[in-house]
Amino acid sequence: MRTHRRAVAALSAPAISATRDAYRSVPSDVVRVAALVEISGAAAALARTIVKLHHLDPDLIAPHVKDTTDLYAVLGRGRWLPTMTRHVPAPAADPDLVAELAAVAPVPARRSTRLTAVRSAGQLPLFAPAVGEG
Question: Which tens digits make up the pLDDT trace of 31-54?
Fold first, then answer.
């Protein structure tokens, strides 16, 4: 389990670094908070989607995260509390984790049987399509 927790930390390190950069570089508190909400909202939506589509048990995920309160709040089975403010340390750089990540077997992709994408009115796509590739 220790290896999995280190692998999770290594996978999340670039996103945490980018989030910390946004936190430090944006002068306006309003824009800073809005950007952080967008980042966390997108990440939480992706996590909930994976849990729902693959029917994952949150209790199996819990040993791999630092704070299970965050896990259940992100997955919609808990709630954020006013006391949930804390320092987020800079991720540690560990070059040995690259070998460990390569050893983790990838999860096979599920084939979608849905032929058309259904989107709510006014909902923007999570990722914009690439333009000018070819």
Answer: 888 888 888 888 888 899 999 999
